[in-house]
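Quick one:
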Amino acid sequence: MSGKRERLELSKLFNKSTMLQSQYQHQSGAIGSPSSQFSRQGKTSGISQEQKEKLREILESKKPSDFGFNESKWSAMNVRNLIQEQFQVDYQESSVKKLIHKMNMTFGAINDSSKATPAR
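Output:
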C-alpha cells in the first residue's frame, strides 16, 4: 500500500510543479520549454558589463606577470584567477572560455596583441 501512496504523492508533487511552471510562464510572458526557463535558477550572473570592459582592457594591454602569475600568456586558468582577484566572482575554466568567446575575443588574439613592454 505504501508504494501506491508514494506514487500518488509524487504524482501530486509533479502536477503542482508543472502548474507552477505554467503559471510562471503565463505571468512572465516566458516563451520556450519549462526546462529552458528554469535552467539558470540559483546561479550568479557573473561579472557586469563594466567589469567586462575592464577585463578586456586588462587582457589587451597587460601580461599575466603584471598580476603575479608565473606565465607569459593568458590562459583560462589565470583569467579565472584574475576575475576572482579583481571582481570577487568565481568562474569555472569552461565558463571563462565562454565568457571570452561572448566578448568576441580569443586567447590567441589576446596573447598575440602587443603588450606594454617594461622600460629598459
